[in-house]
Amino acid sequence: MTALREEVSEVPGVSKVVVDLAANTVTVHGTDLEDERLRAAIVEAGYGTADSIAA
Question: Which residues of 20-31 are buried (b: 16+ CB within 10 A; e: fewer)?
């Protein structure tokens, strides 16, 4: 979980990351976030992504 939070926190524009493994979700707060960069960070941390990301 720490690796996931760290990877996603490195994405430009991210100000806060909330990981809920029980619900299988990651909530990201920030500005000018790029979907592809967020997905890449999640995959880099060893997790999969859903087909859609809520704005």
Answer: eeeeeebebeee
Q: Cβ(30)–Cβ(15) under 8 Å?
A: yes
Element (H, E) at 52: none
pLDDT at 41 over 70: yes
Strand partners, 19: 26
The tokens of 41 are what? 């960070």
Q: Rounded distance, CA 33 to CA 36, Å?
A: 9
Give the pLDDT score at 2. Answer: 87
Percentages helix, strand, coil for the chain, rounded to the nearest 5? 35, 25, 45
